[in-house]
């Protein structure tokens, strides 16, 4: 779509009409990966034309100007070409920066899948990604940080070896690793939940199961980080996974 001017115009026009039809406040583009070296430059063109169309439509409309945002990769450097940061800065109201998925794709070792920091790594981690976006020229005030309301579960090889990086045989994300399910179905008064401030993640073991997730401490630490970094804000995936608003309230009062 993005590499053809006719297709871009059709997409832009239909998206604006749809937003007005359902009384949306704005539009959010999901663009995390690219398939060719031309995709990212074409994304830059798309964003400019989209914002121009939104601005023109607002002048001829009684409604407020539509917001235009995008969900992007955790880092602006993405093979086979980098994100068009200058165009993003000029034409988007803000971006939702995703987490780094690489840590969840390591089934042989436990990890901190939603870690704020990743000691020893120069590639994957929330702070690494956000810092890379800022260093590439994107204003911190255009960055919205990801907060996970879910975790990930590994199966330990040896339950006695159970820290971050412990040998494991499998990893899974899904319904049972939602925050609500973790708190209600896994954790009891006798469960020892560890908060690792080096990564900013909570984890615990139950038999051979090893589960990493964000509890109140991690959420508060990350919100404090977002404020100190001067970010626009944070977004939760997803509010429905919360447990009687525990995480949302922790974020709100930080």
TrEMBL record:
<dbReference type="InterPro" id="IPR050314">
    <property type="entry name" value="Glycosyl_Hydrlase_18"/>
</dbReference>
<dbReference type="GO" id="GO:0005576">
    <property type="term" value="C:extracellular region"/>
</dbReference>
<dbReference type="InterPro" id="IPR011583">
    <property type="entry name" value="Chitinase_II/V-like_cat"/>
</dbReference>
<dbReference type="GO" id="GO:0005975">
    <property type="term" value="P:carbohydrate metabolic process"/>
</dbReference>
<feature type="domain" description="GH18">
    <location>
        <begin position="1"/>
        <end position="254"/>
    </location>
</feature>
<dbReference type="InterPro" id="IPR001223">
    <property type="entry name" value="Glyco_hydro18_cat"/>
</dbReference>
<dbReference type="GO" id="GO:0008061">
    <property type="term" value="F:chitin binding"/>
</dbReference>
<dbReference type="GO" id="GO:0006032">
    <property type="term" value="P:chitin catabolic process"/>
</dbReference>
<protein>
    <recommendedName>
        <fullName>GH18 domain-containing protein</fullName>
    </recommendedName>
</protein>
<dbReference type="InterPro" id="IPR029070">
    <property type="entry name" value="Chitinase_insertion_sf"/>
</dbReference>
<dbReference type="InterPro" id="IPR017853">
    <property type="entry name" value="GH"/>
</dbReference>
<dbReference type="Pfam" id="PF00704">
    <property type="entry name" value="Glyco_hydro_18"/>
</dbReference>
<dbReference type="GO" id="GO:0004568">
    <property type="term" value="F:chitinase activity"/>
</dbReference>
